[in-house]
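User: My collaborator sent over this chain with a note saying "see what the structure looks like." That's all I know about it. Can you take a look?
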Amino acid sequence: MYRLIYRSKSAASVDWDCMRDIMHSSEEHNQQQQISGVLLASASHFLQIIEGKYEDVNSTFMRIIHDPRHSDIKLISFGCIDARLFEGWGMKGIGVFDFNTETADALKTKYGSENNQVSFPLEEWMVLAMVHDIHVHKKLPNWKR
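Assistant: Without extra context I'll predict from the sequence alone. Here is the result:
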């Protein structure tokens, strides 16, 4: 089992319509490939964690890097894992741009801000900590601790 994490810059401002398009286009592929994970989006950036078999994660990432909806893709990590963190999440989409002020301010204080938005980290441990913090604040279902 493998986990890949990347961050990218959005080609256009991200909103729920954009997130729905991304989730819809990846839903069937992820189910067929048994990919799980989470996609975080601010108004200007994406942060995605993908889990699955090596070949499936790699081919999914190769497809993602050619998607014109983003650029400046930074691979944060790609490595072997003992177990999935996101079992049961074909791909969960989380719009950080839609968080309440309290949650957004807490994340900005802990992880920094970029253009008055939550800044997505570039280190694996910080990405996983951020997702955990979001889980705690948003009370997301089906999270393995």
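A starting point for your reply to your collaborator: The helical segments are 16-33, 54-65, 101-111, 124-138.
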